[in-house]
Each structure stands twice: as structure tokens, then as C-alpha cells.
Amino acid sequence: MVGLGYWGPNLVRNIAGSPATELVALCDQDEGRLASVGASYPSARTTTDSAAVLAADDVDAVCIATPVSTHHDLVRAALESGKHVLVEKPFVTSVEEAEQLVALARDRGLVLMLDHVFLYSPAVRRLATAVQDGELGDLQYIDSVRINLGLVQHDVNVLWDLAAHDLSIIDHLVGRLPRSVSAFGEAHQGHDLVDVAYLHLDYGDGLIASVHVNWLSPVKIRHFLVGGSRRSALYDELDPSERLKIYDRGVDSTPDPESRRRILVSYRSGDVVAPALEPVEPLRAMVEHFADSVARGAAPLSDGEQGLRVVRILAAADRSLAAGGAAVTLDAGGGA
Predict the structure, then answer these.
(1) Are 137 and 230 spatial neighbours (Cβ–Cβ below 8 Å)?
(2) 3-state helix, strand, coil in the chain (%, to 5)
(3) Distance between CA 89 and CA 92 in Å, rounded?
(4) Alpha carbon of 255 to those of 105, 264, 267: distances in Å?
(5) Which of 45, 111, 174, 270 has the highest count of CB atoms within 10 angstroms of its CB?
(6) What is the pTM of this model?
(7) Residues of CATH 3.30.360.10 domain(s) within the chain?
């Protein structure tokens, strides 16, 4: 484990606690933090030198949870050392860096996985099943709100920090890049990092998506609404008892046979179902999925390719922000 800051100890706890993995080394440049975390895992050696971890013969895989500005060099060094990699989001800070790492992992036959942890939550897995099985019908819109007070970052803006989560879920559900991206935001903290932002995605075929992220909100909201032609679903990460609800409510319309210019509208108000969800910690499920992917030599759910797609969207969003919200087109090959 390289990086023991805010998120690293959560990963350490699940790596050490899973029967699928063995924690052998902890690494952080802060010796005080290293000693504090290491005290709870005496069987794991500690070091401030990441190169020593990557050179170790008893290390098969490396988990990286360091500032995003360090990701590219650390992930590249790990892959070049023959280690499988699980890396915290956001992946890297540019499309070019992401492309390099995805190609390197592919060439070396190694697993490169992103810590898109919400994909491993029972609620999102059930939501994905509802989409894939046609339970919701044709997707029409996705509306996500992820706001709270902090943690304000100092190396990436709020889109890269928070929207990366929502974009990974949207990518998992939709399975393709949007046609275009537009973003609006403002920076209020005396630097140029946007801390409140609105991101709009046009996927074509009648599907649009919107993501609102905010570091300055006095309340914490985590709503992810998916609207389909048959049903809609709400994923509320903060609801401890009913994280996912599926609504048989909506609008049905048919052409008015007496007029070409009018439609007949009816409102459907059916049942609301909260599916039973397995009580599994998403982070534990993610760690074990990583271990299983390494053991089988299989591509994980949140592989480097997905990380690259998310970075493409975020990079396009940055260009849109700089252009005052102008739409940035993504071509079929992923470029902009």
C-alpha cells in the first residue's frame, strides 16, 4: 500500500481483512503517519521508499492512494516492475498519461484497476442489472447531485475530485462516451480551482446526463436519478435502509389521432419498490474483485480503459470550463 493519507487507511483495512489478499508492506513519506497506521498491522513492514516496495519479490500488486499529481509516475513504475495496480481516483491528470498507462498494462499483461468504489456497491450493481435487463426501458436522462462541505483539494478541481465517481457510474450504465460535454463552474477560494460545477453530457439517442458537484454546500447530498421509458430509479448513497428505489411512475404519451400537432399525455403513478440488497461493504467487494481479476488474468469492472474514458470526459469538461461552457465534442475514437 503506497499512500496512507485520507483514503489509504480504508484500503489498508480491507486489504488486511480480506482472505483474498495479504498486506505485506506500507509506504508513506510521512513517518508519523506511517508509524501510526503501521502499529495496527505489525506483520506488514513499513518504508518511506516506494522504489523499495516496487523492487520487492514478495509484492505481487500495489495499491496507490497518493495525490493525483504523483499517480502517473508511480503507476508507470509499478507496471514496469511487473506489479498489478489498483489506483485511487482520479486516475491521472491528462488523456495522454492515461493512454500511456493503459497501453503499458496491456503490453505487460498486468491488471490496471481504478478505485471506482461505487461500482461495487450492492445498490449500483442492482441498478446496473435493472438497466441491462430492460427493467427501466430506454434510458432518457441521468441526474446526479454530489455535494458536501469539503474536502477541498489543492491539485484538482471539484469535477476531477467528485464527478469522477458519478462519471464512472454513468459509464458503467451507458457503456459509451458522450457525443459532447459542456461544463460551467466557479472558483471561490482565491485560486483557479473550480469548487462548484455543473456538467452536462449529451449521449445521443435521446439520452442526456447532468452532474452537479460542490465542495461548499452546507448539506451533504448524494442523489443519482436514472429515468427510463418504463421506470425510473433513485440511488441515494446516504439512505441506510433504502439506498435504491425503483419507481413505476412517469409520463406516457401517444399521438392524438385527431391532430398531428398534439399528443395525449397520461401520468403513471404505480408502485415504488426498494429491492433487497446484500449487506456488503463496497470497498471490500472492490478489493476482492481486484484480487480475483489478478488471479484469473481478467479485466476488472473498473479497468484502465474505463479510467481512460472518465479522464477523457473530465479533460473535455476542463476545456469547456475554459471556453465559458461551450460544448466540446468527443469523436467515436474518444478524442475531442
Answers:
(1) yes
(2) 35, 30, 35
(3) 8
(4) 53, 6, 15
(5) 111
(6) 0.92
(7) 122-280+311-329
What is the third-level CATH fold of 8-115?
Answer: Rossmann fold (3.40.50)
Q: Which three cell numbers stand for residue 201?
A: 453530457
Neighbouring C-alpha atoms within 13 Å toward the C-beta of 281: 11
Among 155, 144, 210, 184, which residue's Cα sits nearest to residue 320? Answer: 184
Q: Which cell numbers in the block locate residue 221? A: 447530498
Task: Please name the helix (run of DSSP H) or strand (run of DSSP E) that holds residue 311, with its range, or none.
Answer: helix 304-322
Contact 257, 284 (CB under 8 A): no
Query: Position of cell 399521438?
Result: 255
CA 33 to chain centre: 27
| Cα angle 144, 147, 152; round to 5 | 130
| Fold classification of 122-280+311-329 (topology level) | Dihydrodipicolinate Reductase; domain 2 (3.30.360)
Specify the domain boundaries for CATH 3.40.50.720 within the chain: 8-115
Phi, psi of 118 (to 5 degrees): -70, -20
Omega cis (within 30) before 225: no
Average pLDDT of adjacent 10-residue blocks, the chain of 336 residues: 96 96 97 96 96 96 96 98 97 97 98 98 97 97 95 89 97 97 94 94 97 97 96 95 89 61 64 92 97 97 98 98 96 62
| Residue 61: predicted pLDDT | 98
Grid cell 449529451 is found at 202
- Give the Cα separation of 38 and 287 in Å (integer): 19
